[in-house]
Amino acid sequence: MHSSIRNFILPLLLFVVTALLPLVTSEYYTALIVKIMIYSLFALSLQLLVGCTGLISLGHAAFFGISAYAVTLLSPQYESGNLLWMLPVSIGIAMVYALITGALSLRTKGVYFIMVTLAFAQMAYYVFHDTKIGGGSDGIYLYVRPEFRIGDWVILNLDNAYVFYMFVLVCLTLTWVFLAMLMRSRFGAALTGILVNEQRMRAAGFSTFGYKLTAYIIASGLGGLAGILYAAKDGYVNPELMNWEQSGLVLLMVILGGMGRLSGAVIGTITLILLQEIFQSQALFGEFAVHWHLTFGLAIIILVALMPKGLIGLPEQLRARRRSSAGSPAAH
């Protein structure tokens, strides 16, 4: 019964509570929750690479931005576009870019892989920043949120705030379920093996390059989905979505929450975004709030230093400390 509660009832309860939050919170907090959910999905996509496969990428924001631009450019300027075809096309464009760049990036390892992924992401950034595609450095607006429709039958109208909120929540939930099932599959076991010892996996007859490339492409598609939701949320995209700072931000979410656990990506996202909101609050910090980067950076340094396994590893860290204290001579 305990296992059933943990694996089914509690997640269901969390889903229901999250779904009901907009009914009791203000528009500001509802928008903040939507932002957290979108970035949680983005962080989950990177967790597949960093925590589950051992591929530390500094170019993951490229897929986030490419899909955001794609869905915006494909949308009619003053009409609602049809996500029924725009969603797979926009995600597909990001995955094609991942196939091309991943096939080259994955031939390198370690710090070289990090630098190559960063280089490819910056290439995408400058394509949109220095050309007229998507409005150049000024970006481009998505005036009307797209919708799901078949002919004249509207299946899902995302222009409704609560419908959009629920759509983001469902996307996040399905992404979590998909990645959880993926990591329990033979494919996921192979990725774990690559993370632990890639050389031994190759010796066992596994094509590690193929597994890593597939994981890279899947992660890009999920990152692209997050980008589409972000574009629909704000109605505006610009090249900064693909900048290295965006890749660094989502990587920090994964590290802060804890690598290797899906829940770590979500916990890290919640913590980081809430810290940003707190340190930017003039109600709490007054005029010093304009220097929020300083306090935010110090808080991140302290958290990472005190919790090397991330926030998800804090309970285990506390248990180990208690066992150490109980077994020490001073305790007797």
TrEMBL record:
Pfam family, one: BPD_transp_2
Keywords noted in UniProt: Cell membrane, Membrane, Transmembrane, Transmembrane helix
MF annotations from Gene Ontology: branched-chain amino acid transmembrane transporter activity
Primary subcellular site in the record, as a coarse category: membrane
Cellular localization per UniProt: Cell membrane
TM annotation in the entry: 36-56, 61-78, 84-104, 111-128, 162-182, 209-230, 250-276, 288-307
Membrane topology reported for the UniProt record: Multi-pass membrane protein
GO cellular component, one term: plasma membrane
Entry superkingdom: Bacteria
The protein's name: Branched-chain amino acid ABC transporter permease
Organism taxonomic ancestry: Bacteria, Pseudomonadati, Pseudomonadota, Betaproteobacteria, Burkholderiales
